[in-house]
Amino acid sequence: MERTIKDVVDGLLLHIKEYGSKEPTIRLYRSVYRSLINHCNRKGGELYTDQIPGKFLKKAEGCYESGDHCYEYYRFIKRATRLLDTFARTGKPDFGHLGGHKKYLPSPNHQALIKTILDEYRLVNDARTEMDRIMRHFFCFLEDDSIDIPQVSDNALFRFVQLAAATKKGSMYRVVRAVRMISEYLKKHRMAELKADFSMIPMKSAPIRMIPPFTHDEINRMMRCIDAETPIGMRDKAILLLSFETGLRAVDIIKLQQSDIDWKNAEIHVVQSKTSVSLSLPLNGPVMNAVADYILKTRPESGFQEIFLRSKSPYRPFKAGCALDGVIEKYCALAGVEKKPFRSFHSLRRSFATELSTAGIPLPTISQMLGHKNFDEARPYLSYDRSQIVFCAMGFDGIPVIGGVYADMPVRSSPALMEGGDDE
Questions:
Q1: What local confidence, expressed as pLDDT, does residue 416 receive?
Q2: Which pLDDT score is estimated for 422?
Q3: Torsion over CA: 98, 101, 107, 111 (sign)
Q4: What is the pLDDT of residues 160-170, one digit of tens each?
Q5: Rounded to whole angstroms, how far apart are CA atoms 28 and 234?
Q6: What's the CA angle centered on 379, arms 375 and 381, to 5 degrees?
């Protein structure tokens, strides 16, 4: 039976949800599979074939080797591709790991101890699998050195970290996390004399991705590609304007109801889905007109209170904010706007913040308009404003240079001192 790649992906995502994956992980899976669907569509094939996973994985490998993908993202793509392949062939995705065998098999007593540690930390699914693998490696390391549990020392823990660094350069933060769990467990239950505090080793945090926002020119080009005479075009115009002019998150836009808009005072009032904090923002004329045109002229009749509905029957709201990524990708393609890595509908929110920064709006005000709980969350947006960054540059006039290769160079007199002359 022939199936489209989209049908296969939709079925797989249901299994991923049932597996218990967190929402951020599900969004990442959607992003990877959306790239796969777009890749297939560009190649002119909408039907799923057994060759698709291999071809997509080869493309991802090329992106990794060229530096376009980091190791962790490439690793995630490999997992997503394996899930797709196993689901398409068997009807059930394989959430296990490649190989079907365990490379490190410590003694039954040590395996039982590993299970106890993992249970105490309440690890499940992928996190449990990752820690289990590293802990098995650690206890095999102990067995190879004939070290019993009471003899485990801080030195042994550090030697294992050094050993793991040779083969796990891309995931050392997982190694440190596993060693820290083992150390804390052995100390807590007085099973070994350990003194080192592995919690003092800083864990690797997710890098702050420098995702370029859409420029004014790019947004204008996309807006010109919208056919505002059609129902879909009228809806998409309202959505894009609303995002760029208010900075609202996609999830709040798809949940927006008519009662959230104060038409008389030109304001919008929402309770943010991410923070559960109320947010009020002004609306300008073009945004209000675009939303009103969609509601009055082309919005399908529906019992749903949400303003924006899908364009095909049965007419219902969007299921998730990531659905709007398809809207932005559509008009990027039509306008010839470069699809840079990690750019998505959320980049319109970044564009909104960057425009405010360029206009000289203070950071606390920008943070307030974005609905952040802490204004520090808005700091990454300022990094896109080069004109503001240059004001941070300092000269070295008046700073004495008393060492180094520049110490013997003559000091240039400042114009102010030259004009002032001698005091005598």
A1: 40
A2: 41
A3: positive
A4: 988 888 766 55
A5: 29
A6: 120
Which listed CATH number (3.40.1360, 3.40.50, 1.10.3470, 1.10.150) goes with 5-90?
1.10.150
Residue 350: which H helix or E strand, with range? helix 346-358
What are 98's two structure tokens?
Answer: 């490649």
385's tokens: 């404003």
Per-residue model confidence (pLDDT) at position 98 = 44
Rounded to an integer, what distance in angstroms lies between the CA atom of residue 13 and that of residue 93? 10
Residues 58-80 have pLDDT tens digits of 888 888 777 777 777 787 888 88
Place of tokens 């056919």: 227
Do you find a cis peptide bond into 314, omega within 30 degrees of 0? yes
SS3 422: coil
DSSP-based three-state secondary structure for 257: strand
352 within 8 A of 247, measured Cβ to Cβ: yes
**Tokens 């042994």 belong to which residue?**
156
* E-strand stretches of 217-323: 261-262, 267-271, 278-282
Distance separating alpha carbons of residues 95 and 86, to the nearest angstrom: 9
Contact call for residues 288 and 267 (beta carbons, < 8 A)? no
Q: Which residues, in sequence order, are bridge partners of residue 317?
A: 309
Tokens at 182, concatenated: 């083992």
Q: Which residues of the chain have pLDDT under 70?
A: 1, 44, 96-103, 167-170, 200-211, 373-424
Angle formed at CA 89 by CA 83 and CA 92, multiple of 5 degrees: 55
The residues facing 257 across adjacent strands are 306
Give the separation between CA 40 and CA 55, rounded to whole angstroms: 10
Answer whether 5-90 and 216-382 agree in fold.
no
**CATH architecture assigned to 108-200:** Orthogonal Bundle (1.10)
Please, what is the Cα angle at 388 between 247 and 375, to 5 degrees?
A: 45
Contact at 8 Å (CB) between 210 and 383? yes
Q: Are 57 and 83 in contact (CB under 8 A)?
A: no
* Contact yes or no for 86/94 (Cβ under 8 A): yes
Residue pointed to by tokens 């004109």: 387
Q: Which letter, b or e, does each residue of 335-365 get, where b requires 16 or more Cβ atoms within 10 Å of its Cβ?
A: bebeeeeebbbbbbbbbbbbbbbeeeeebee
User: Which CATH code fits 216-382?
Assistant: 1.10.443.10
The reported pTM is 0.51
Give the whole-angstrom CA distance, residue 404 versus residue 164. 41
Look at residue 101 in the predicted model and tell me its pLDDT: 46
Q: Which sequence spans correspond to the domains of the chain?
A: 5-90, 108-200, 216-382
